[in-house]
Amino acid sequence: MSIHFKCDRDTLLKGLSTVEKAVELRNIKPILEGVYIQAKRDGIVLKATNLSLSIETMVEGDVVSEGEIVVSARVFYEILSKYTAGMIDFDMEEENRLKISNNHSKTQLSVMDAAEFPGFPLVPEKGAIVLPQNVFKQMLATTIFSAAISDARPILKGVLMEVESNSLHIVALDGYRLAFRKMALANGVPDIKAIIPSSAFREVIKILEDSDDDLAIYLADNIACIKTNRTQIFMRLLEGEFIKYKNILPSEYKSKIKLNRNEISDSVERASILARNEKDKLVKFSIVDDFLTITSASELGEAFEQVDIFLEGKHIDIAFNAKYLSDVFKVIDDDNIILEFNTNVSPCVIRSGENDDFLYLVLPVQMR
Amino acid sequence: MSIHFKCDRDTLLKGLSTVEKAVELRNIKPILEGVYIQAKRDGIVLKATNLSLSIETMVEGDVVSEGEIVVSARVFYEILSKYTAGMIDFDMEEENRLKISNNHSKTQLSVMDAAEFPGFPLVPEKGAIVLPQNVFKQMLATTIFSAAISDARPILKGVLMEVESNSLHIVALDGYRLAFRKMALANGVPDIKAIIPSSAFREVIKILEDSDDDLAIYLADNIACIKTNRTQIFMRLLEGEFIKYKNILPSEYKSKIKLNRNEISDSVERASILARNEKDKLVKFSIVDDFLTITSASELGEAFEQVDIFLEGKHIDIAFNAKYLSDVFKVIDDDNIILEFNTNVSPCVIRSGENDDFLYLVLPVQMR
Q1: How far apart are alpha carbons B4 and A190 in whole angstroms?
Q2: What is this structure's pTM?
Q3: For residue B178, which of A27, A366, B15, B173 is within the disulfide window of CB 3.0 to 4.6 Å?
Q4: Which residues of A touch B302 (CB under 8 A)?
């Protein structure tokens, strides 16, 4: 076993910070806390996996002698980040010891057996969903917060990705709220469904860049793969049937209001400070003519907020958990939003006033 | 009981963020979680106290009706920070309810009885130690990290402030390291000593600004007071005798090295990553001729670091807890530093290469 390569510190750190999102943090198996490093003629391959999420990327370097090793991801990252910037030499002279060095510093790091590192799937060769990286990142950021956190119904910790008639849908819901986002695909892709762990998508968001370069998504039987220029991300799918979400979406409304997103967002934030029950920050809405009045109360005091609205339909009094509203207001980036109501025990639909590609649904809290 | 005033949101938030450092966080007595607000002809006085640390400041506002109240510091701050910027009206119309309002928002906050709020000491009228705010802030920042954290010897959680022959000394030590800083005073002040809780000084650092406006410090029998333009900070002194620190300072050395601070600082940081015992990150120094070699080892690997030095005196091998060195290197801001040694079981003295106003002392770790 030998390996010898030279690599720029910042280049290597950037690659490491991409793959480290898949490093296993629970003390399960030492090899999964490692980063796999392969020096190949065409560059340095880095890999990490927690068996559910697996990430592979490639960085540039000068390869003197090809080889593969595994080192502790955390220790390797910490050491490199303390090295001075510039080229660093990596060389396995002694058995089980990687020598890291530059002019002034020399570090010898224990290595693990690369043969023990789990194999990675191959990227499927066809059926890619192709869309710009920044668009997909935005679709995830505005939906996955609605996925369940609790383990009560494991399938709700997943996010549905489906292609239906050349339209890509992303759906997340937790029993109290639902986020739906769609996008027309340019290329012809057959209809398909997959449920991806929201935990994996939370790491994917951190890796994707705000670039309009295309990425390709491949959905297979038990795995999804996202491929960018230098990086492949593999996510094991959740098994089971997703909630039939279309049955939940209301097809009509009795009241519809249009209002400024910042105004309602700030008002809900202020009102929620005085709704002191942390678990269920109750805020009451009263919609009459030109105003939405938001109130809350606790032993600390009372809040009254008034927001200008355009109302179409009937007056309504309805109450919400402030957190579920705030979460949505944070991710919509349009100035005007629309809220649609039926009764004060049926879901409220929240839409952008300018964009038809997404929809949120929030259940009200029953008032006593 | 009534009160009515108008105040700019950001002005009030700035004042609140000053006094909130003294708000009691342990659930001891509700009134101590409050901020005292007094509307007076000449402005709005804000006060908070945890009985050990007490802070009073004044902000500008339009007083319609004088009065005093106490409200929950945390809730009041949270609400104001969510209000839109600009003038806000504060009015106690109802008994026990402070109405906070602007054009769109209205909040009614429970108030506590101002008569229950602890009285504040008076600022002594003479004997002030006068020095620029930024200089005092810097003196604190470069010493108080050496005070003890543990309760084993309560007096070591204090910081000694003493005036001796018109020189102000600040000293903190925890049994493993000592930080000493001095400054010649321009005005004539009688010799005096006081031991101030390091916890209070940690809050003082956050309040002081990087301005060269003077502040005045008054040391009385059981209290110290720091007075800036708008703010007074009162700190209850610790009782007892401080360690006779002058007896600990070595009067000579057998080896003295001069070296670049950044180089030794970075090398110690890198070596400490592989010194995995969190409690006692052992790094070994070997000083021979023109080089300081720093090494460390653990099951993760080994580090070797070499730093250029100018040596005067004998070769020496000595070991340290890396944390005590890093802490010092972070606060010295000169390029060159000096380390003085006697034996590998006696304290090492660390000085600036350019400035005689401070001195650190670090105990070595005995090597087996």
Answers
A1: 68
A2: 0.88
A3: B173
A4: 107-108
